[in-house]
Amino acid sequence: MHEQLLASFDARVPAALARAVSIVENHRPGFEAILARLHPRLGRARRIGLTGPPGAGKSTLGTHLATRWRAAGLTVGIVAVDPTSPFTGGALLGDRIRMEGIALDPGIFIRSMGTRGSLGGLAASTREVADVLDAFGFDRVLIETVGVGQSELDIARIADTTAVVLVPESGDAIQTMKAGLMEIADVFVINKADRPGADRLHHEIEITLGLRMGQADRHVPAHHGGSTRAIRNPAYAARNAAARDDAERWTPPVLATMAERGEGVEALVTAFDRHFDYLERSGVLRSRRRQRLRERVVEVVERRVRERLWGDEETNAWLDERITAIEDGTLTPFAAAAALLERSAGLIARESR
Amino acid sequence: MHEQLLASFDARVPAALARAVSIVENHRPGFEAILARLHPRLGRARRIGLTGPPGAGKSTLGTHLATRWRAAGLTVGIVAVDPTSPFTGGALLGDRIRMEGIALDPGIFIRSMGTRGSLGGLAASTREVADVLDAFGFDRVLIETVGVGQSELDIARIADTTAVVLVPESGDAIQTMKAGLMEIADVFVINKADRPGADRLHHEIEITLGLRMGQADRHVPAHHGGSTRAIRNPAYAARNAAARDDAERWTPPVLATMAERGEGVEALVTAFDRHFDYLERSGVLRSRRRQRLRERVVEVVERRVRERLWGDEETNAWLDERITAIEDGTLTPFAAAAALLERSAGLIARESR
Question: Whose CA, among A34, A114, A173, B162, lies 20 to 30 Å from A213?
Fold first, then answer.
């Protein structure tokens, strides 16, 4: 299945890439076979996540990043994800059009994705599309997500480096998700940094980073422009667990950009390179990627269980028959679940074909 | 296990309720046994969901709704959920304090929940806490959620009636989730309706409802105050599938409130009662609740599969051993998943004890 497509993909035919991405994104028949075939080629690309609230300028920033990487001779794949768009799948259309200036470059590939099915499903699809782009040979894979709660955490598991993009105006909106952002950010970007409130936001980020320092020594970071002085932070200690020694800790810099004018983008690219060097040197890259592969297997296992159980007519009929008893209160959902699992062991274990 | 707690719960001791909710919310040992014991008593409460963007005034509205229900002699359980708060779990603290005026009333119980684990997990926990409140005998269970993408869809599956609460200012913020909101709203509330933009928002909601009408006949709804004229809407036709005839279709009214002053709350309570009458009369209530029980079993089945697989040391060790081969590209995640399922069938099928 899809042998011809894969041959064209290997020959780096752009149309084959687009088709492979579509098949994988929509989980069309044969998508697992494609991913399995591409699996040995993974690991070349550096995966960089851009996340943050709507309107933070992630697309503009992404466009400038892509342009700069292209100027350095690197190819770029972009996956733009909007988990707040469960039905339309088209919320990023505007961004896509805005990006079309760079989309004509054959060294750049862009795919927008909306939510289909669950958030968990979207994270899986995003990772799978990133895998296809990696296997095609892109040097950088940029994953852009609108940050709403859980989705930042999911993106942090997909990317090697995660940049959290904020704007001065987003100060209040991010209050509730602040703790989550602190956990996942490898780099902070304050975009539209010429607007009022940029200093306050910068300060707030540092305070929040500081709050997580606990009793450890603290060096107050510089107040602007890519501060890199060490903050000893137990939250990062956990993420940095694989770092070989204390000198290998990573301190998330807070960078100021004005993406519309391209200002600060060079410093951001440098920060990404520095972070990747850190990941490689410290051994964190390998441990993160191993963890990602492990999560990948878990994801596939759970998906198969769901497909085999709920794709089976007989199991569904069996369950339907029990709903009335559950409704009457004579059977509990727990007893029904236990019975269902007991009778379905064979179904779960084996391919149905 | 927990027999004494359940006896106190049966005797309607408030402390027993609080403890049962905590055990269930945090999935502490014995939580399934508690839920199984309470299962036969479910179905008395009317479950009402309030969802919408942060700052829409859901808590204030909820407080007024609770006060009004209490005045009518009804008891009220409230579950306040913030899925944007993955780590703190405390984003609703302010709301909780604000609600304390009503929290002293023994006929009212309030529980705030933040995200722990996945969004899917939060929806399950919310449903389970709502079950405990239902079993305790509350007449109304109010489920308040900050609406961010997927979470509204999840809440719509938990509640009998879902009200989407918007404010004039939220016009832009809701653009991306508009389609989703349209699908799940049984009632629209425009809160802070004295502010500029309320008319525009009202109009926008109607337009969006209208866009979904397709080729069907259309009656333009009244422009303000609980419009109830029929909109023939294929999106609703699907949700109303169990309605016995055409006269039983539900048209989501668009209501204006000023929650701070309690204005419009009476009309909202009436709309909830009308919607519940509709649900009962049309047969939709029973079909929705049956669907909910079915989803409940699916949820429990999938959770048990996860617990049995990933809670098993030997399975984890087996998987760890394979990660290096997956890393080298000599084994794919798909082949590993298939092998894992084959060897773990017995584990999945049977209680480990």
Answer: A173
